[in-house]
Amino acid sequence: MSFTGKYQLQSQENFEAFMKAIGLPDDQIQKGKDLKSTSEIEQDGKKFKITVTTGSKVMKNEFTIGQEGEMELLNGDKAKALVQMEGNNKLVAKLNVRGNELTSVTEVNGDTLTNVMTLGSLTCKRISKRI
């Protein structure tokens, strides 16, 4: 299944506490919590380009499955990341965020893109729909 497409955020759980834990300033958390971000994913085999637009902030990341790379986080920090694919519809990324491991699992099912991020005991779940 291809991840390629444009998705708009529909709902999110535990956003504020999670963003605070990764170091996003309170003013940015307040601005971002009510904005419906758009994610555009381009997949070419094992290569991915992901562009997330939230209001005026645009975050772009590129990676290749199975190769360590660097990704930009929501707080602007850069982190080493390794992304693996499970099955044909799930991406699992492991990133080092301020000395802690952040795991991001992104799964596509039909027109729904679900992203669950875990840092320690905190979890943030975001659900987007293809537009």
TrEMBL record:
Highest taxon in the source lineage: Eukaryota
One Pfam family here: Lipocalin_7
Main subcellular location: cytoplasm
UniProt subcellular location: Cytoplasm
Gene Ontology terms, MF aspect: fatty acid binding
Domain Cytosolic fatty-acid binding proteins: 5-22
Family note: Belongs to the calycin superfamily. Fatty-acid binding protein (FABP) family.
Keywords of the record: Cytoplasm, Lipid-binding, Transport
Name of this chain's protein: Fatty acid-binding protein, liver
Any single GO BP term: fatty acid transport
UniProt xrefs under Gene3D superfamilies: 2.40.128.20
PROSITE patterns (UniProt xref): FABP
Gene behind this protein: Fabp1_0
Organism this protein belongs to: Grantiella picta
Role of this protein: Binds free fatty acids and their coenzyme A derivatives, bilirubin, and some other small molecules in the cytoplasm. Involved in intracellular lipid transport.
Gene Ontology CC, one term: cytoplasm
InterPro entries given in the database record: Calycin (IPR012674), Fatty_acid-bd (IPR000463), ILBP (IPR031259)
Comment, domains: Forms a beta-barrel structure that accommodates hydrophobic ligands in its interior.
